[in-house]
Write a structure and sequence with these properties.
Radius of gyration of chain A: 25 Å
Oligomer: heterodimer
Structural class of chain B: alpha/beta
CATH architecture of the largest domain in chain B: 3-Layer(aba) Sandwich
Largest sheet of chain A: none
Distance between the termini of chain B: 83 Å
Strand content of chain B: 5-15%
Strand content of chain A: under 5%
Strand order of the largest sheet of chain B: 2-1-3-12-4
Number of strands of chain B: 13
CATH superfamily of the largest domain in chain B: Periplasmic binding protein-like II
Radius of gyration of chain B: 24 Å
Number of domains of chain B: 2
Number of strands of chain A: 0
Largest interface: A-B, 32 and 32 residues
CATH topology of the largest domain in chain A: MetI-like fold
CATH superfamily of the largest domain in chain A: MetI-like
Shape of chain A: globular
Chain lengths: ~300, ~450
Amino acid sequence: MRAAYPPIAHRVRGLSDKAIAWIFIAPTMILLLAINLFPLIWTIQLSFTNYRANRPNAPLRNVGLEHYQTILSDPEIWQRMQATAHFVFWTILLQTVIGFALAYLIDRKFRGHGFWTTLILIPMMLSPAVVGNFWTFLYQPQIGLFNYVVSFFSGIPPSSFQMLGDVNLSPWAIIIVDTWMWAPYVMLICLAGLRSIPDYIYEAAEVDRASNWRQFISITLPMCLPFIMLAVLFRGIENFKMFDMVNLLTSGGPGSTTELASITLKRAAFEAWRTGYSSAFAIILFVAVFGLANIYVKALNKVKAR
Amino acid sequence: MTQFRTWMLAATIAGSSALAATGAEAQGKSLTLCWAAWDPANALVELSKDFTAKTNIAMKFEFVPWPNFADRMLNELNSKGKLCDLIIGDSQWIGGSAENKHYVKLNDFFAKEGIKIDDFMPATVTGYAEWPKNTPNYWALPAMGDALGWTYRKDWFSRPELQAEFKAKYNRELAAPKSQTELKQIAEFFQGRDIDGKKVYGAAIFTERGSEGITMGVANALYPFGFKYEDPKKPYAMAGFVNSEDAVKGLEFYKSLYKCCTPPGYSNAYMQEGLDAFKSGQAALQMNWFAFFPGLYKDPNVGGDRIGFFVNPPEKEKGSQLGGQGLSVVAYSPNQAEALSYVKWFASLDVQKKWWELGGYTCHKGVLNDPGFAKSAPFAADFLVAMGQVVDFWAEPSYAQLLQAEQARVHDYVVAEKGTAKQALDLLIQDWTKVFKEDGKF
């Protein structure tokens, strides 16, 4: 006969199960409220004021939507958003293609595949600060390996072009570095997707004499799609906020060519100390990322449901 | 068991020693001085040992690399942090730090201790200590005089074959330039030249985008061409001054110098990159702060007889970008009395003499006006000349916003080749006007 266990509340005198559940989750809830919700509400409040953190004694004035209007009507802010969109689009595209291709290769068992997997994963384990610094050396026109490799294949003298100092090349320079660093991450997620596909589906396809290409289009890709979409979501959010690596590589230059939105935000908030203005900018960026991510998650759920 | 006892005994002794050391340290007082991490900071560490010996106050130091110095220290001040008791803050911070009461006002202290501000070079008092400018309100003691100057490869300049070639081309001696135009000609002369089997380049100049680099470099060209920040008769009136014909010529000149004569990949270079280029024998000329000159003179590869120094040459008029810093007491320090005693000690003539000997640039007239000063180091005479012609960037409380605007506008024009010099300066006036309007200056 199965023993009937009394509810836990019967054992802890005076407390219901619900109360005990609340006690367990309360620390987490308080922490979340303290480090997420409170700063968010405070930032929203500051965004309607002229507050500057470096002038705490200056009179605080409510400016209404002035900062929002200024930001949204500033052509230079839109240029920064364009630079950010260019960076996000190309990094995601390249990382997805390369990451999936690598996962597809690694998924096939071959000799030394564990070694190659580890080797491919190394870039994503490095700190962005380290990556930024050593790619600065790799891109150095006189001694950098990158220019020599390009020179070897193209015949162009290595010192004749500079990846970080050229308006046309610098946006691609940061895309290359980010792709190098994070394509392995996409690979890892895609690999999980590929390994989740049961073998019997492929066996059934082979019985039906489906070609490899047909199997890839009809089985591999659709079944991996939720994983790919998840990787795109993670990388999209991360790259929208990209700061450290780009700041180290170009500081937003040449001119403002690679000045992503997050670099502009940091400069406004912690160099110019326009706290109210930068709070409004942060809220705009937050709404943009949050809104896009929500739409995307809905699409992801639909794909999963299919 | 015996081994265990031995380990326990060792652990007990180690623990007791650590506790004893902590107790001893806690008994003595200590001060923390914050500054940038560079050669003169090492000299100050050495100098400050005398202060500790005299007062028994231990000195701790917080040195931050230049590109992060302003960010780190202004964050500290704005958050009313207690990390620094003393700070050697950049000249442009004086307005904000005075108005926001980050620094202790030193007038009463100077009067009480008999420290005469007139003992210090006037340009350094205005640049590092006064706010508002040209008023007797002192927030710092001039600590480290500095200006932008130039170094050149004296050994290359003295080669007979190069001298002959240069003379044939320009009809004058290959020597330190006397104008900005001559400077560019020398840079062009060396650009791409093969010296001792190595390709060398004309000039290492400032092009850095992230902090203040390109603004400082460009200013060193703008001032000699006649650029002014504002109408001397009407403060904050910038049209016709910031974007004057002379200013446009100055900015065009800087871009042409960048395009013709810098090493490849020199699009984001500041003081460290300049030092690297010069020390590795890549550049014939180097723009940099006088603060680095003692270290460069001692360099085994390019120092001694191989290096020469010169003041930023004039074009239409004289002008050098001011560097340097003043020593201030942080208002949030719990050790203000001890910090003030350091300031008093530092202000004395003997300490200032030693400061110069160790590699710091004193601002004290008692040292600078000494008949032997000009010959005390190969760059000493040039330092005196440079300090007599310095101009500083805005030192307003909103200097960071003004700086950011110039960084973006001039980098856009010089490095990213966006628009014309006139457009860049017109846009700069727009940006600066917006900042001054927000500050209620109009």
